[in-house]
Amino acid sequence: MSYAAYKMMHPPTGVDHCAAGFITHSPSDAAAFSSSEAAAAATGAATSGPDGDIDSAAAAAVRAPRRVGPTPNLVVAAANVLEVYALRADAAATEDGAGGVQPSSSSGAILDGICGARLELVCHYRLHGNIESMAVLSDGTENSRDSIVLAFKDSKITCLEFDDSIYGLRTSSMHCFEGPEWQHLKRGRESFAWGPVIKADPQGRCAAALVYGLQMIILKAAQVGQNLVGEDEPTCVLSSTAVRIDSSYLIDLRVLGMNHIKCFTFVHGYIEPVLVILHEREPTWAGRISSKQHTCMISAFSISMGLKQHPMIWSAADLPHDAYQVLAVPPPISGVLVICANSIHYHSQSTSCSLALNSFSSQPDGSPEILKTSFHVELDVAKATWLSHDIVMFSSKNGEILLLTVVYDGRAVQRLDLMKSKASVLSSGVTTLGSSFFFLGSRLADSLLVQFSCGVPTSVLPDLTDESADTEGDLPFSKRLKRIPSDVLQDVTSVEELSFHNNVVPNSLDSAQKISFIVRDALINVGPLKDFAYGLRTNSDPNAAGISKQSNYELVCCSGHGKNGTLSALQQSIRPDLITEVELPSCTGIWAVYYKSSRGNTAEDNEYHAYLIISLESRTMVLQTGDDLGEVTETVDYNVQASTIAAGNLFGRQRVIQVYAKGARVLDGSFMTQELNFTMHTSESSLSSEPLAAASASIADPYVLLKMVDGTIRILVGDHSTCTISANVPAIFASSSEQISSCTLYHDRGPEPWLRKTRTDAWISTGIQEAIDSNDSSSHDQSDIYCIICYENGKLEIFEVPSFKCVFSVENFVSGPALLVDAVAHISSKDTAVGSRDATKFSVKKEEANNIKIVELAMHRWSGQFSQPFLFGLLNDGTLLCYHAYCYEGLESNTRCVPLSPHGSADLGNASDSRLRNLRFRRVSIDVSPRDDISSPARPRMSIFNNVGGYEGLFLSGPRPTWVMVCRQRFRVHPQLCDGPIVAFTVLHNVNCCHGLIYVTSQGFLKICQLPSAYNYDNYWPVQKVPLYGTPHQVTYYAEQSMYPLIVSFPVVHPLNQVLSSMAEQELGPHIENDVTSGDDLQKVYTVDEFEVRIMELEKPSGRWETRFTIPMQSFENALTVRIVTLQNTTTKENETLMAIGTAYVQGEDVAARGRVLLFTFSKSENSQNLFQVTEVYSKESKGAVSAVASLQGHLLIASGPKITLNNWTGSELTAVAFYDAPLHVVSLNIVKNFVLFGDIHKSIYFLSWKEQGSQLSLLAKDFGSLDCLATEFLIDGSTLSLVVSDSDKNVQIFYYAPKMVESWKGQKLLSRAELHVGAHVSKFLRLQMLPTQGLASEKTNRFALVFGTLDGGVGCITPVDELTFRRLQSLQRKLVDAVPHVCGLNPRSFRQFYSNGKAHRPGPDNIIDFELLSHYEMLSLEEQLEIAQQIGTTRSQILSNFSDFSLGTSFL
Q1: Where are the alpha helices (DSSP H) in 728-831?
Q2: Residues 1018/524, Cβ–Cβ less than 8 Å
Q3: Continuous segment of H or E residues that includes residue 392
Q4: Distance between CA 744 and CA 705 in Å, rounded?
Q5: How many other C-beta atoms are found inside a 10 Å radius of the C-beta of residue 50?
Q6: Left if phi > 0, otherwise alpha if psi is -120 to 50, otherwise beta: which for 10?
Q7: Whole-angstrom Cα distance, residue 1221 to residue 482?
Q8: Mean pLDDT of 1419-1448
Q9: What percentage of the chain carries pLDDT values higher than 90?
């Protein structure tokens, strides 16, 4: 293996930064939206906002009382992932019943008229760079939007704004202070402790970024109404404009006499922007605190951007050395709060006051006595946000929520008041969203969305039962709430814990503000992944082989920290729980239908299916789904002699329709009421009237669309009054000769159909409720039906049904452009460049482009009041195109400004006005790689489901079946590998299978299953989180019993004298005694981490994790490693499987480190069959900390301190047979055959070999550089061995041993094979065998990939690649650097360069390809894909098959 590939399979989830801002809409949009609700509710348009405002997509406070104001968006950054969310709140049903339907996602109590809230994704980007700092630039006015300002490593700053026309973020300005011309800013330094920090002025006049430690960059915002130079598109006439950056200049803070800056912020209440900087005049350290303690000061500078001057207007000195944060107090108080670890100080130009938090706080001599809090708290690394103008909320380092009130009498600040409130997650950032929500972002636990209310809650309702909830509504969410483990633990101080479970609104608190909290939503986070093990799932299949064997396994990870510590079980693919299976050969389709007799009027949401229709090759089976499945084929009037093409319900579930090749039948229960035969239309050919067969069908009550075998279409129209159907050919298609490649119906239903809002006359048609669908007037939901047709030439058209007026058309849908824009509406505008490109230069590649067709279409809008429809197209090469609809009112369509013509609304008849001009679709990336040629008359592959186990989405059957779940308006793609190809799928809901599914495999087995309910599918991979209430450190897998031993630590509070006396026992000498005697010291407590090894098992039937056995460690003893080892017993000559634990005693820097090695055996206990015993068989102290253990050919290899020893096991004793002296401290050990690789904490990696005959461990080679290793592993490619190491600067390097090469100094030195900057700390590598794929069947079979986990919660892999594939994909990667517009203007090549942080490093070869960049290729349009493939001398299908082989070879889970 000389070449490697890198791919992130599970993007990072730990939230680093969060901010609130009106990104997708301005405050006035949201305010108008919530105030017009009262009118809307009266007219009966129950729970949705006015039409025109759909693009101001954040109408959150629906019919809520006025104190819930306009709600901003939430912007979240996790490592290199940027996401913008909209907050959706559900109003509680009003008492008088005017509110219509009550939203079903009520998660418990009602607070401020809101019964539930959730976050919905607006847009999601994976950037080529980690976000170091984030701010929202807002000018605070009602009708302008905010911009997001991001800062990246070294000093890159990007300003982003939301662009309605593409429904995504676009870069409005980029600022870079790197490179040779800015080298002088570094002042000769190479490494800096942290990246750039950015803050924004509250009035939006400027932003400031601190780079290189002491350089302040002032970014001046453009004045309102003046645009950037060269921006001639007047796109922002209708929509509100966003704040933009105009120019920038530098302030060198060294000139102002500062040398160490801790924090800075902009303050309120001045005419010009005022920047307050917290800095340390002369540094101090712990040993000098007695004489030099008050070293910090704050200085306020007035920033005059026009003159580029910054006079100092006030300052305050003598602040404690542990001050770390300044917070600007909002108006009318203004001023700043300085937060220190042990005190809080308020300063403004005129007054100051402070508050001591514990007994360690002190003030300078001669200052007045300060107030103390009634309880003891430490505030270092607390995160803060303002809940109101005088209450600030802190989230402290142990997860407590503290509320600080600034007591203000109208003239000056009197005092500061601090009170404890709740306990919650350990947060990395916290932000207030509007006036009644805040968001706790966390790297160590799930991030929470919390609603708060300052008053006493008016009505507190208990959690209602979920049975009555409406399926079509948001049931998945309320179900999901019950599933999320409360990532939390009762704190020692008996503070009420804030979690998903105890959603009780508390009674009054001590303070005047009775602030009550309810957790409304959570974003899942599986980071930081410290360690993981690869083990079997509970429902694994021992007989599986090949790719389906992979889904037997799952990753069990140590994630979280402290009270948020969890064991996370991650799976890449779904393996449903089997209820029953039947052999059923040659099945071609399966449908479950309802049957509702006209008498029984049951609620639709929980109705059971009545019949199951199974289509075989030449006949049809019908099963009744009662208490059990019974075949009723003989007794029903279905056409059972022919195979069925489609089946479904018509007329509000009163009838069933069965479509077969020659005709269709309508059935009432089991009795046929009508039969229809398809014949050739007489107008086309009067000679022959032989029947014409249907090829595919799409059903949308009361219409059925048929595509015939000759490529024409028919529509069957149902009549509600008589429950009969009649066939006709739409006139528009009777004459046209264009070949249709696929078609479908889309049912736009709901209280207010979504697509109507995109018509240009939408604002008129809602005023005059036109009877568009008079035949459907019986139901209270209005519904429009559209027919979507794709032609052979790649054109897509949308028609209204039944009039078949064309309302939307796109020329080149098959090529997958980034945006779909209606061709007719936008002829006048410049946007046509988006839709169709100049096609002459593609003549060479026309052949390949011509045989690509859309073989299947689907369009659906899932539940949720604000959801927008998705459009799917399946190409015949297996690519899935996926689009999300949005509404954009461009310039041409502002017809609402034109006065009505004399005829009044009669003008609406003309063709251009009823088009969906404002409808656009944007392409969404979706990671599905079935890659197979689909023959033209294929059976349908996409099945839409609305409730399988509480989730909704789309199931893609075929050779690589995939679940595409829709959660929060985003896709969660989960493959299902366990049964090979799947030919048919349907949902089934009856007594024995609640919201389950049925699928038929290509081997001919029909399986009835349910989704495993323990897992949460709203994550990149399905995950089950088990709370441990302690920090997990390391986990390993014991395969024989399938158990997981893991190390857990939890803090225990001891009295200080007990701690000191126990240390004194261990011969620390008598010098402690005289310190302890003073009386008040005896009351103090000290927190010690206590360790234990838990042996956990996943119970088979229940799916719960149980602790089987616990091994406690001694006091002050830290367990560092636990591994299952196989040792050869030298007395009996048999192999034994033991559990080895390595520990260290941690007693401060005065005591020499010691450690222990413990060996345990597992044995079944005699009396009962399921219990087992863990017994200690060996324990011995060693001189150093035992940090790693491994078994090497039956011997035990122990790394204790700086020495590695190899030991024989006699059955009762370990005897050393060889040793090797490591430099400092071994962090990881890996073994292959007789080779040993170990990583040192500072001195990089060493490669040893063990020779049995001379019994010696000898050094083969080492890396001569210095490297802080985090994890190491061997990478095996056939007979080639490479060594992989990750370091503390977030890089991964691959080395190899080549003693014959000259530069290896006769083999002493390891040579670099490849290197890459991952951008996250890789904490663990795991070596797994790759699957041989078809493309590489002739290649080497024992290829191993490395799966790694990062501290950001990401999982990725590094795999060997053969040279041909590498060369092809590397040239593609170089092309894509320029061919794709990268978000934020970041350069992928510079991001992936080895980051040495100022240390000397000789760059290694560029022998690794980056799939993060290559994945952009599939999102290009077809013409661009063909063009790039031709430029690098290959074909598109070749590249896509390489991608497919790679994802097949690495689907390990």
Answers
A1: 731-735, 762-765
A2: yes
A3: strand 391-395
A4: 7
A5: 19
A6: beta
A7: 53
A8: 92
A9: 50
Q: Which two tokens stand for residue 438?
A: 């805040």
Token pair, residue 1048, equals 């857990």
The full length of the chain comes to 1453
In the block, which residue shows the tokens 């239903």? 749
Return the amino acid letter for 1360.
P
Tokens of 521: 């939503």
What are the angstrom distances between the C-alpha of 1268 and each of 82, 1142, 1286, 1310? Answer: 29, 21, 8, 16
Instruction: Check if the beta carbon of residue 775 is closer than 8 Å to that of residue 719.
Output: yes
- The token pair that represents 1041 in the structure block: 């019993």
d(CA 270, CA 1308): 66
Phi and psi for 806 in degrees, rounded to 5?
Answer: -75, 125
CA distance 327 to 340: 11
Going by C-beta distance under 8 Å and a sequence separation of 6 or more, which residues neighbour residue 313? 274, 300, 301, 302, 349
Judged against a pLDDT cut of 60, whether residue 40 lies above it is answered with: no
Six-digit token string for 359: 């007994």
Of 49 and 171, more confident = 171
Cβ-Cβ contacts under 8 Å for 370 (sequence gap 6 or more): 343, 353, 354, 355, 356, 361, 363
**Measuring CA to CA, which residue among 709, 783, 791 is closest to residue 746?**
783
CA-to-CA distance for 1420 and 816, rounded, in angstroms? 7
* 95 vs 330: CA distance, rounded Å: 37
Q: In angstroms, rounded to a whole number, what is the distance separating the alpha carbons of residues 1109 and 1114?
A: 17
CA angle, corner 183, sides to 182 and 186, nearest 5?
110
CA atoms within a 13 Å half-sphere pointing along the CA-CB vector of 617: 4
Angle at 49 between CA 45 and CA 54, to 5 degrees: 135
Angle CA(762)–CA(768)–CA(772) in degrees, nearest 5?
75
- Residue 840 makes CB contacts below 8 A (sequence gap 6+) with none
User: What is the distance between the alpha carbons of residues 954 and 859, in angstroms, rounded to a whole number?
Assistant: 10
In terms of C-beta density within 10 A (0-12 exposed, 13-18 middle, 19 or more buried), how is residue 832 classed?
Answer: middle
Q: What is the pLDDT of residue 496?
A: 62
CA 270/CA 191 separation, integer angstroms: 36
- CB within 8 Å of 323: residues ≥ 6 apart: 262, 278, 296, 338, 339, 340, 345
pLDDT digits (tens, 9 = 90+) for 350-386: 899 999 998 888 877 767 778 888 888 999 899 999 9
* Bridge partner residues of 1117 (DSSP): 1145
Look-up of token digits 């580029």: 308
Which DSSP state fits 1129? B
Q: How far apart are CA 651 and CA 656, in angstroms?
A: 9
Mean pLDDT value across the chain: 82
pLDDT tens sequence across 100-141: 333 333 345 788 778 889 999 999 999 999 999 999 999 878
Residue 655: exposed, middle, or buried by beta-carbon count in 10 A (0-12, 13-18, 19+)? Answer: buried
Which two three-digit tokens encode residue 114?
Answer: 């809101």
Three-state secondary structure call for residue 635: helix
Query: Rounded CA gap, 1113 and 1090, in Å?
Result: 7
- Listed in sequence order, the residues at least 6 apart from 408 whose beta carbon sits closer than 8 Å to its beta carbon are 332, 333, 390, 414
SS3 53: helix
Going 1025 to 1028 to 1029 to 1033, the CA torsion angle's sign is negative
Is 741 in a helix, a strand, or coil? strand
| Alpha helices by DSSP H, 910-1055 | none
User: What 3-state class would DSSP assign to 1082?
Assistant: helix
Half-sphere exposure of 892 (CA within 13 A, CB side): 18
Closest CA relative to residue 105, chosen from 89, 116, 119:
116
Write down the pTM of the prediction: 0.89
How far apart, in Å, are the Cα atoms of 1123 and each of 532, 1035, 1135, 1349, 1350? 12, 8, 16, 18, 20
> Which tokens in the block code for residue 84?
């913008």
